[in-house]
Amino acid sequence: MTVKILRLGHRAARDKRISTHCALVARALGAKGLIYTGQRDSDMEASVRRVSEQWGGKFTIEHATSWRKVVKDFKGKSAHLTMYGLPIKDKIGEIKKTKDLIIVIGGEKVPMEVYHAVDWNIGVTNQPHSELGALSIFLHEYFQGKELNLDFGKSERRIIPQKAGKRFA
Amino acid sequence: MTVKILRLGHRAARDKRISTHCALVARALGAKGLIYTGQRDSDMEASVRRVSEQWGGKFTIEHATSWRKVVKDFKGKSAHLTMYGLPIKDKIGEIKKTKDLIIVIGGEKVPMEVYHAVDWNIGVTNQPHSELGALSIFLHEYFQGKELNLDFGKSERRIIPQKAGKRFA
């Protein structure tokens, strides 16, 4: 079972934090890696890798030049999250049957070609909000809440949940 | 039933997009408004209000100088989303009984006082990710998926969900 994220059209100056958050959400909620197109951003890659090294797991981050090639070469199906897509509630049952999935998220302007290259265009609501909101709820629905209890293995940092305050293991 | 978001320590330059996304996610997923502390940012306020005017609903955005006063004056309970908190799955049942809720999200450095001022500190996983990821899943759990079908009333813009492509009503 492999779930990966494809983040389109990263702009190093404008999107650094949002794209970093996309990668961290993807990692925390059970995806195996994030591939991004647009500007190569070694700062962002380094900060995502640092989190992964400190907190465990094997999340990968890679740059790609062609989203077409990524979608085409991925052995599995593809879902594009867009406010124009079909309601997640109507389609998630069908999507869950796919064990290997690449989840495509924009970028400011997503080329129309993307809509036709993927297996599903899915709306997490049809209101404008955030690729981060859409991705989080999509992963939560796809993994059925099990992603909230993932084991990241041995790691340098680990939190012991507290009623108030902060505690590390 | 009133759910509001309190976003702590906004920095106009660094946080503009993340805070804007927080407000849009909050609106799209059924919260009534966002209050933020830190730097006043009329650009951000204007862009959130513009979305609300075009897409319907009555979402509000306000600046406050003191988070303490906001939490204290709010007639209801408060939940702070933090990676150090108790698992959402263990607490959401209890939290759902609260009809009026203010959801507190950081900010880079959340003062320890916040942890003690709120009714719950909740971890949407205990991994580092994004206040946007935490907020989205929290709202989704709190509203039990009903937030995905909200009616925003008469609005200038409205999407008709499509299998591929874009269509407005």
Please provide a written account of the structure.
Two copies of one chain form a homodimer. The first copy, chain A, is built from six helices and six strands. The two termini of chain A are 30 Å apart. In chain A, helix 1 runs parallel beside helix 2 (42-55) and helix 1 (12-28) runs parallel beside helix 6 (131-142). The mean pLDDT of chain A is 97. Chain A has a single domain (2-149), classed as SPOUT methyltransferase, trefoil knot domain (Alpha/beta knot, 3-Layer(aba) Sandwich), CATH 3.40.1280. The longest helix of chain A has 17 residues, at 12-28. Chain A is α/β, with parallel strands linked by helices and 169 residues long. Chain A has a six-stranded parallel β-sheet with strand order 3-2-1-5-4-6, with helices on both faces. Chains A and B meet through helix 1, strand 4, helix 5 and helix 6 of A and helix 1, strand 4, helix 5 and helix 6 of B.
Beta strands of chain A, count: 6
Main β-sheet description of chain A: 6 strands, parallel
CA-to-CA gap between the ends of chain A? Answer: 30 Å
> What is the gyration radius of chain A calculated from CA atoms?
16 Å
The CATH architecture of chain A is 3-Layer(aba) Sandwich
Domain module tally of chain A: 1
CATH superfamily of chain A: SPOUT methyltransferase, trefoil knot domain
Average pLDDT for all residues of chain A: 97
Level-1 CATH class name of chain A: Alpha Beta
Described by its quaternary structure, the protein is homodimer
The coarse silhouette of chain A is: globular
Low-confidence region ranges of chain A: none
The SSE string of chain A, one letter per element, is: EHEHEHEHEHEH
Q: Which chains have the largest interface?
A: A-B, 51 and 51 residues
